[in-house]
Structures are given as structure tokens and as C-alpha cells.
Amino acid sequence: MFRLLAILGIVAGSVYMGIHASLKLKHRREIILALENDIMQLSIGMDFLAKPLAELTLRFCSPATEIFWAAFRDELKLEGDVPKAWQNAMNTAKKQDAGFAALKKEELKILEEYAQSLGASDRTAQLKNATMAQKRLDAVGGEAKEEYDRKGRLYLSMGVLCGIAIAILLW
Amino acid sequence: MPQMKNTKEAHWKDTILPMLPQKLERLLSPIEDEYPLEELRIRAGQPLQLCSSLGDRLLYAAGKRPAATIEDCAAIFERVCGHSIYAWEDEIKNGFVTLAGGCRVGVCGRAVRDERGSIAHISDITSINFRVGRACVGAANLLLPRVLRPDGAPYAALIVSAPGHGKTTILRDMVRQLSYGYGGACPQRVCVIDERMEISGSVRGAPQFDLGPRTDVLCGSGKPEGIRLAVRTLSPQVIATDELGSLQDANAVQEAAFSGVTVIATAHVDSVQALKKRRTLMKLIESGALERIVQLGRSSGRPGIITGVWDGELRPVANKGREVLCFDCSQSLE
Q1: What ipTM does this complex have?
Q2: CA distance B278 to B293
Q3: Whole-model pTM?
Q4: Would an 8 Å CB–CB cutoff place B84 in contact with chain A?
Q5: Residue of A52, A81, A82 lying closest to B87 (CB–CB)
């Protein structure tokens, strides 16, 4: 009986690890896509509406990135500059959302660089900044999609198969 | 004398201090609340300059060091713009941003020109001037009877003075009183052409001062096109605008006046004698578009003193050789 329970536990753990690894890749891809879309929406808002950042982020954020933009708006009220507010909001989002936690260093760097001049210049410069961030996110987004397509199912299957293999060995 | 009061929507400390870095905030916090601040000037590498009716005051950092750095100016500018400089582009081109409460923030730095040679943007901010704007309800009480016809409609009037003598404060209150129909005025439909958002203190289109129930405010538009638009589409009885100067402004005022709209405006001219040397404005007066010229002055540091009223042919009207203190809101000094 004890052995059966142990085997079931190991199988469940192995399957969970596979699913977790696969979901991490999926979330990462989704967050990159959502952020890319948000940045595009923000730049459209800057160009045509000329509203302040806090107002635009409220209007244009997508559901997947809502946690981050809400934290960013709150930080903007407290912090003296945008990059610091961005950094704090990113830390909050990483703690609360698996997608943000899954972002790699390279992606975080792109976002930080975008935040460096976010709101700090005229419309033309803002649009250029947004276009650059979008293009860079597009590139890493493509890579994230490929990685998910390639490894996402693999991790899931490996989790299940490893669980079964361990179960057989232990039986 | 009808009651006057200084409407204190927000104290200057509440409006200005949140925009400053901590070290400047600490420097200004000990200033007494009653200090009648008119302007706070922040310059990179210089002490803070506080301007008031009591005179100028320079504030240094500890050890007589300059109070502000260029980084401070950049940080203040960013805060003033709500971390969204792009959203204030049009205002920045004109050298100012308006804060909630009608405080005007003038900026100075490096002007970036566009291909036509006009200023496209101001960057590398090195000077910031917070000009405290405050409605002074009742400021036009003593002036209004001098610019009203017997039927209660106003004469087309030009208020002239040097900067800082209370032109905008009086104009703002005249608009309010005409719109409500106070002080013997017949209620008027007023349209304010507020190019620099000083009359209404508008922030993103919303006026911060009470300009009356019959007042429409067109913010940010140039005066000539604004006046023409108002005449065509808003059917005002009175158009009020600030700082007439160019030929285009004068032509638009003239067109409005001969379309049956009364124009009340201000101009930076320190005396009627100097006015005679301003050809554009003189032509406007000679055309008959203006029926009253009001000259304001300053005495013992106090602005808002009527030093004379003239008719459209520059004949004195009820001057009787004495100056009249029009308002005593020492903190309202636009």
C-alpha cells in the first residue's frame, strides 16, 4: 500500500514538473506578446490622444499584463522617475504573476531600456522608442514561440513518461 | 465696497512642493505659509528665487551653495509633466505647462527647431518658473462700473499694464462677473480665448477657475483663429482674451468688434503714452474697435491699481487724477 502511494506521488510530481516547465514557456510567450501589444497601443495613444502615461496604461493594458500596469501606475505616484517605477512594478508583477516570473534576463533588459526614456521625451522620440522595443520584443517573442512549440510538449510528455518509467522501476 | 475674497483653492505649497526633489522641498518647507509667493524661480547652478510683493528672496543650499542642479531641473520638469512630456508637447513649444490649480510653469532650456525654423520642443531644461495663479474673486468690482454701458453691457475694453500688475486677474474676474451678471452687468455669453491657459487655468481642457455659467473657454488656440472660430460658432456677446500684440490679433479683434461682439483684452503696455507708440494697437483703437482703455499699475509692491481709464479716442474718463486700488489679493498677480 505504502509503495503504491509512493509511486502515485512520484508520478504526480513528475507530471506536475513537466506541466510546470511547459506552462512556464507558454506564459513567457504570452506575456511577451501581450507586452508587445501594450507597447504598440501605448504608442498609438501617445500619438493620437496625447494623454499622460497613467491614463494611457489604464486604457490600453491587456488582461494578461494588468497586474504590472496597475503596479506601475501606483509606483508612478510614489516614485520620482519612470525607470525606478518600472523596476518596482516589474518586481511586484514577478511575485504575483508566473508569466512575468518566466521572463528571461534578455527580455527584462529590453523592457528596462524601453522604460529608460518612456514619457521623458516628445512624441516622435516616444514612437521611435516604442518601435524599437516592439521590434526587439518581436524577435524574442518569435524565439519564445519556437521554444514553446519545440520544448513545451516535450517537457509535458517527458514529465508523464518519466513518472511512468519511475513507477515501473519501483514496482 | 463689495466684498472681495482671495479664493484659496490650493496653497502654493500644496501645488509646488510635490513637484520638487526632496532637497528643494526641505529648503522651501520652512517658509511661512502666509508668505505671498508670486513666483518661484529655479535655475540650474543658482539659488532659488522667491518673488513676492514683499520683494525678492534668494534661497541657497547649506554653505551658500547653489540650490538646484541641472538634474533637479530635469526631474522637476518630468514631474510637472506627469512623467509624460509627449502629452504636453504643444504647451512646451510655447514655453509653459499649467498645473492643476492654475499654477503656470514656465520652462527655459535648449530650443529645438523644426524644419520651418519655429520651436518644435524645449529640451535640456535649465530654468523653471512656477507662477502662482489664484482667482481673486471681486478683483474687478471697482473696474466693472467704469467699463459698463448704462444698459449693463460692457464696452469693448483694453486693459494695459507692464507684466505682473494684475491684468489677467482683473480680466478673469471681469469674465466671471459679466457671465453671472454681477456688479450691474447684464448677464453676457462670454467666450474666453485662452491661448496660454492663464485666464481659465485649464488643465487638459478643464478650467480650474470659476469663470461663470455663461462662459465658454477655448484653450490653447491662437488668438486670431480662436476669435474667428468663436464668432462663427459660439455666438458670444463678449470675447475675452489675453495679451494682444500681433497684427493678426488686432485684425481678428477688429473683425469681431464689427461683427457685433464686444472684445475685452489685455496687452503688455506699461502706459497709455507707450500705447501710442504701438502701431498695431493704436490702429485698432483708431478703428473704433475699442471703447475703453484701462491702465493698471503697481504701488508699494501691490498690483491691481487702476491708474486711469480712457475712452476710444484716448480722452480720460472719470480719472479725477487719483489711483484706485482695485484688488488686494496680493497673491494673485498675473
Answers
A1: 0.80
A2: 14
A3: 0.73
A4: yes
A5: A52
